[in-house]
Specification:
Rossmann fold; 2 domains; eight-stranded mixed β-sheet; six-stranded parallel β-sheet; 17 helices
């Protein structure tokens, strides 16, 4: 995680990477650049908790630049509850979200479209992007995931003659397991003018697919300090209806198999057999990756843990912060992540974390002063780490201070400079070819 002083050094040293004319171009662009962002998981009235990390970055970027967002919505949602349901009735085609104008066109994709889905997305957005270019002459297209957003952005950039950037957040590793998707993703990354990876592991992944190393920047996510900060633990427990003297483990995230809530439950079951009386709090609602809700709600009875597991459902960020402050430890037993914001947010509340060694977790928990990192899919190691975390005496103030060293304001500045560099480098190359 980058400290405030390191962020300032980055801002100061950034122009040196573009000497002469490119540096002047990037500096001039910083005050007037127009950015067209593309993200298929931007929050909407139907799914307000979706992609909050994307919203946070764009809101702070929007304070520094002119940003317009295209947030395509599937005409039909095939994933939630394994049913086809229209969501267009509850979501307007365009709206204002804070300082951002958000366009929400419907797009259709077949449930088994696979590598073709980016093409469906591109075909739906092509006319819109060309039209926007006339009224909003954007300097760069900013895609927030590699698949399908980044591939579609690469195609849109060609037809609008614009540079484009791609942010890698973790789901790209899953899509890269499919041969055709991996090829399409590599094609887009090799053509991107800038690639932002939220962790060093994703930076290496981009380079492995052929991206130019100098175009790949690691910019981790930030934390909303006005929401996630240490609260009085006893007061939070009273407010949540929890006994003040109990011991609690929090598992937070969508109720999907990948998030590993069931693994945390099984780990606490093994600790209960050793006499540990800790209870599990689960916060999260249905996710887009296939419902695992029924299985999770049935598991406490199967493990004879009914009295030690409590489901809170999908909660607001403010209530999540209260849960984090109330908990003794947060546990993230995911099998795959990019930069898991829940880890960063829990630490900002002063709560230690036990998490799987996936994505950016080792960068977020660099020592045992902040929590423990365990191998993914290792139930023995997970249970042992939870036991130690519950028995340790933690310096919660130090944990919070570490997490608060990385803000969304810093992220906004770093992203802005990266995009300005990409546009300036492209313009300089055009000037040299004339």
């Amino acid at each position: 995680m980058i400290s405030p002083s390191e962020t300032e050094q980055l801002s100061e040293s950034g122009p040196a990477a573009l000497p002469g004319r490119p540096q002047a171009l990037a500096s001039a662009l910083a005050s007037k650049i127009k950015i067209l962002s593309l993200c298929c998981v931007y929050p909407n009235p139907s799914e307000p908790s979706l992609g909050l990390f994307v919203r946070s970055r764009l809101q702070h970027l929007g304070e520094l630049a002119d940003v317009k967002v295209i947030a395509p919505l599937a005409a039909f949602d095939y994933s939630r509850w394994r049913a086809v349901r229209s969501i267009r009735r509850s979501v307007p085609k365009d709206r204002t979200d804070g300082n951002l104008e958000v366009l929400q066109p419907a797009w259709f994709y077949p449930p088994l479209g696979g590598w073709l889905n980016p093409l469906f997305l591109f075909s739906r957005l092509r006319r819109l992007a060309v039209h926007l270019r006339r009224d909003f002459p954007f300097h760069i297209i900013d895609a927030h995931f590699g698949y399908p957003d980044g591939i579609a952005a690469a195609l849109l950039a060609r037809c609008t003659r614009s540079p484009f950037s791609v942010t890698l957040r973790g789901n790209e590793l899953m899509h890269a397991r499919r041969k055709l998707r991996r090829a399409a993703l590599g094609w887009a990354l090799r053509r991107a003018d800038a690639i932002i990876a939220v962790s060093e592991s994703l930076r290496r992944f981009a380079i492995s697919l052929g991206a130019e190393p100098e175009k790949v920047k690691t910019i981790p996510n930030g934390v909303e300090s006005r929401i996630y900060f240490p609260r009085n633990r006893v007061q939070c427990r009273v407010k949540l209806g929890l006994p003040a003297g109990g011991r609690f483990v929090l598992s937070a995230g969508a109720l999907i198999e990948r998030k590993g809530h069931h693994r945390v439950m099984e780990a606490l079951k093994s600790l209960a057999e050793e006499g540990c009386t800790a209870c599990l709090l689960i916060a999260g609602g249905p996710g887009r990756e296939g419902s695992f809700v029924k299985e999770l709600h049935q598991l406490p009875a199967k493990l004879n843990m009914q009295r030690r597991v409590r489901f809170f459902g999908e909660v607001s960020p403010e209530r999540m912060a209260e849960l984090m402050s109330a908990a003794d430890v947060l546990c993230l037993a995911s099998s795959r992540e990019g930069w898991p914001n829940v880890v960063h947010e829990a630490m900002a509340c002063g709560t230690p974390v036990v998490a799987s060694n996936v994505g950016g977790v080792p960068e977020m928990i660099p020592s045992d002063h902040f929590g423990f990192v365990v191998p993914p899919g290792d139930p023995v190691a997970l249970a042992a780490a939870l036991r130690s975390a519950l028995e340790n005496s933690w310096d919660r103030a130090a944990i919070a201070a570490w997490a608060h060293s990385r803000s969304w304001q810093q992220v906004g500045r770093e992203v802005l400079w990266t995009l300005c560099q990409a546009v300036a480098a492209g313009r300089h190359a055009e000037e040299q070819q004339r």
